Model the fold of this input.
Amino acid sequence: MKNVCDIIKKPCLTEKGMFLQEKHNQVVLKVNPFANKIEIKEAAEKLFNLKISKVRTANMHGKSKRVGKHTGTTNDWKKAIVSLQEGQKMDFLEQL
Done:
């Protein structure tokens, strides 16, 4: 198994992520693009000491950026939406 820090990079603290966390008890994470759902579930349970019921993933494509006459794209990344079991709670803003 890969290292936990290699699989989960950081939490995705956006408005949609906060809404999912408050209303649906789900956490949004930025993860390694080559990690699968089983590895993400095991790493999140080990890192946060929580019970996880479901993991959904999405590959996010980089945006086009332009600086002067030069154009390029930001890096592609993978997003995981982790559903917590009943009674489990995770709040990133309280830990900051």
